Amino acid sequence: MTTTTRTTTRTRARARRLRRTFAGLALALLVTATGSSCDGTDRAADPVERNGTEFAPGTLRVLASSELTDMEPVLETARRATGVQVRPTYVGTLDAVEQIASGQADKDYDAVWLSSNDYLRLRPDTAKRITGETPIMVSPVALGVRPAAVTRLGWDPAKVTWSQLHRAVADGELSYGMTDPMRSNSGFSALVSVASGLSGAQAALTEEDVRRSTPKLKEFFTGQKLTSGSSGWLATAYGRRDDVDALVNYESVLLSSFPSGDLTVIRPTDGVVTADYPLTLLTSARPEAKAAAGRLTRYLRTPEVQQRITGTTLRRPVVPGVRPASALARDQRRELPFPGSRAVADGLLDAYDNTLRRPSRTVYVLDTSGSMAGERLDRLKSALAELTGDFRDREEVTLMPFGSAVKRGEVRTHTVDPASPAAALDAIRSDARGLSASGGTAIYSSVQEAYRFLGEAPGDTFTSIVLMTDGENTDGDPATAFDAFYRSLSAERKGTPVFPILFGDSDRAELDHIASLTGGKLFDATRGSLDGAFEEIRGYQ
User: Fold this and answer.
1) Domains of the chain
2) I need a surface site. Which of 205, 292, 499, 519 has the fewest CB within 10 A?
3) Are 320 and 185 in contact (CB under 8 A)?
4) Helix, strand, or coil (residue 40)
5) CA separation for the pair 439, 282 (Å, rounded)
6) Which ranges constitute the DSSP H helices of 388-529?
7) Which of 253, 225, 250 is CA-nearest to residue 169?
8) How confident is the model over 107-164, as pLDDT tens digits?
C-alpha cells in the first residue's frame, strides 16, 4: 500500500471519528476564571442563542485534551473567584484537530485547550479558525523506568540519551508502553521525540530525517509491549504487568500516576518534545466568550495560580520566577525539532502505524444470536465494513461469530498483506456481510474459545479480544467457569485484554467484570454509534 493510499484511508477514518458523539466523554465542570493575553472586556448581555443552544454571558465552551481533567481543582477556584463558567468537552488531541479543521468545532465551542498546537499549526485549513493562543503550563515527554531496570542497566538517570534508550531496547534489555500516536498527542510527541533524537536532526524534522532514522526506529519499537488510546488506561495496564520495564509519556503523567517512586523519570539529555497547553480562541467565538477567555488566561498565568497548577498537576510553570513543584527536576533540556510540514508528520504517523510498530492480532467475538436479527445485525455488518478502513498493514483479524456456541464453520482469519491489502479488507467485508443470526448467547464460552485460538501469542505482536454482544449469557459456561479459566492461563496469555462493547440489552455489570478481570476496558455503544465504539478500541490494539 502506498503512503498516499494509506494517508487517504487514515483521513477517512478520522472523518468517521468526527461523527461520533463526544458528549459521553465530557465531564460537567462548572468553572470560573479570570485572566488572559486575549484583549476584551466582559459585557453584560442577555443569553445568546446560537446553533439552537442558549448560552449565558461569561460561559466558555472549550474543546480540551483529555488529560486536562486534572485541572478541575484549579478551575473550581477560578470559578469562585471570577464567575466565568467553563464547559469542557474532553477528546484526544488529534481528534480535536480534525474537528477544528472540518469546521465542526466552530458550531459547538469558543476555544480549544490542547496539550500542544504543534500539529494544528501544520494544517493550513485551521489557520483561519484559531487566534490568540496563550501557553498555560508545560510538560516534556519523558520515560518512566522501574528503578530495578535503571540499576540493571547501570544508568545515571540525569545523563541518559535517546541513543542509549535505543541501544537497550535493541539489545532486548528494555521494554515499554506508549500511547497510540494516531489518537494521543502524548504518543505523537513521544514518536517525534524518538525520531528526532535518533536521527540527530538539528532543525525541523524532514522526510530524509525520518528515512535515515527508520532502521533504528524499527528496532526501538520492537520494545513496545503496551499500546493504548489513553494515558490513564496505559498506566493501569502497566501496573498489572511485571514484564514491562518502562512507560513513555508526559513527565506530569508519569509522576502523577506513580507518585510513590515506583518509576524513575528520565528526560533524555539530547532533548525532548514539550507540551505547552495553550488556551486558544476560535475566531468564530462570541465577543463575550472572547472576553471570558481573556480573563481566564490572565488568571491562570498569575504567579499564585501558576504555583498551584504546578503543585496540583506536576506540570511546569510558564511564568518566570515561579518555582516548579519539588518533584520536578530543575535542569533544562533542549527542545527537539517538530516536523516542518504536515507531509512529514503524516508520513511519520503512517510509518509508525504500518511499518514501525508491532503488528496486531485481534479476535472479534461477535454475538450473532437470534436476538441480533434485523436492525442490530445490520448495524454490526455496517460497523465492521467501516472498520476495515482502520486496519493496518501486517494486522491479523479474526471474526469469530457465536450464538449458543462459537459458529466454528464461520470463523475466518485474514492478515493484511502490505503488498496487496485490498484482498484481506475485501474478504473481511465479505465475511461481515455473510453473518446471520441464530441461537442463544454463549458469552463466556466464546471468549474462552478466543483465548484458545490466540494460544501462546508471539512476543512480537499486540494481541486483544473484542467482544460485542447485545444480551446476557444464556448458554455455555457461567461467569465462574470463565474466571477459573482465566486464572489458569499463563502470565503471557493473561496479557491479552478483552474489550467488551455494551450494545442492545447486554448486561453492563457482566461485561464490566470481563473487562476488569482481563485488564481491558468497557466501551458503551448504547450512548453512541457501534462503529464509533469499534473505532475507539483501535487505539488499544
Assistant:
1) 3-136+277-317 (3.40.190.10), 139-274+333-352 (3.40.190.10), 359-540 (3.40.50.410)
2) 519
3) no
4) coil
5) 53
6) 421-433, 443-454, 479-487, 491-494, 508-518
7) 225
8) 999 999 999 888 888 888 888 899 989 999 999 999 999 999 999 999 999 999 999 9
Phi, psi of 407 (to 5 degrees): -85, 85
Cell output for 414: 485474514
How many helices and strands in the chain, by DSSP H and E?
Answer: 21, 20
C-alpha cell at 147: 528503578
Residue in 460, 387, 392, 383 with CA at minimum distance from that of residue 421? 392
Name the grid cell of 247.
Answer: 512507560
- pTM reported for the whole predicted model: 0.83
Q: Which residues pair with 62 in a beta bridge?
A: 88, 111
* Confidence at residue 4, expressed as pLDDT on a 0 to 100 scale: 42
Count of residues making up the chain: 541
- What values do phi and psi take at 461, rounded to 5? -130, 155
Per-residue pLDDT of 447-498, as tens digits, reads: 999 999 999 766 789 999 999 999 999 999 999 999 999 999 998 899 999 9
- Of 234, 259, 326, 295, residue with least CA distance to 58: 295
Radius of gyration from C-alpha coordinates of the chain: 24
